[in-house]
Every structure is written in structure tokens, then in C-alpha cells.
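Schema walk-through. Below, the input block comes first and the output block second. Nothing else is stored per chain. Lengths vary across the set, and this one has 198 residues.
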Amino acid sequence: MQNSSGASGQSLIEIQPWRDWISVIKPGILASNLFCAFAGYCLASRLKFDDITLIFILFGTTLVVAAASMLNNFLDRVRDLKMERTRVRPLPSRRLKPRNVLIVGIITGFVGLATLYIFVNPLSAALGFIGLFVYVVIYTAWLKPTSTWSTSIGGISGSMPPMIGYCGFSNELELGAWLFILVSFFYGSHRIFGHLGF
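--- output ---
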């Protein structure tokens, strides 16, 4: 959407079609990760809910996962031009500006981590940061274009949402948390988080 004539300058984040912004946060993948976070919380709490804490866990996780997806799309925009099935995505097709997606992704990630740190606990924020860093830097920027190990390493990120949910209640890496991360890693959570952008 273009600004009307005579307007002085453009806003930093220009208005873009909602469907393209929804596309870059991958709502289906996002919902799957939220289910994993919720499952982790249920396991740790034994269904004894603290509603406010749970809301902040899910809100913070939503923002962190959405940020990971946006930053993944930003980093993959050039590679996506090389494949028929990906060149029509919002960034390679230039329906969204890379700068806008980068800015929104960074802000979203920061707010998500801050939410987990302030309203849940620092451990959950640390787990969110690990998931975000491994997915965006290690998986997307480094290993994806260079190594067949990329998806396996991406599995570390896939294990973080249930861990955030679990530790959001327990506030410690107890045995149940480690069992959860092993199950999540080996039985498919990496397909939820590790295949963002595919």
C-alpha cells in the first residue's frame, strides 16, 4: 500500500498485505510450537495451572518463534530465488521489504525474550534465546547452506518450546525437563521448529 501523494516521508515499517506478514510467521508451525510449550507446562505442573504464568509463557514463546520464522525468511531470501517453489514467497518476490521483516523480527524476538525473562523466569528466557540463536545463526545462516547436519542441529531449537513450558513452571532443569528435551529432539519437534521456511 502506497502513501498518498504529498505525504512527507515514509514510515519505518510500511503497511503491507496482512497475508504476507502472516505467511512469514508460519501460523501452522507457530501453533504446533505453542502446543509443545503447553504440553511441557502441563507435564511440569501436573495440570495445576497458574493461568497468568501460562499466558506469559505462551505469549513469550509465540513472539520468539515468530521472530525465528521472520529472521529465517530474511536470511533465506536470496536462496529462495533459486527454487521454483520458494521464489513466490513474500521476500524473494519483493512483496515485503527485507529491511521491514528484519526490523520486525528483531523487535519481536527482543520483546518475546523480555516477556519470558520478566514475567516467567530467567531460565525460560535463556532457553528461548538458545532456540532462537541456534535456529537463526547456527542452522539458517551457517549449516543450512553448507552441511547435511543442519536439520539435526535444528532439532535443538525444536526441543526448546516444550522446555520453555516445562521450566516456566518448575524454574529448574530437573530430570523431567531433560527427558522432555530428549523425547522432543528424537521424536520430531525439530520438524516443527527446524523446518521453518521450508
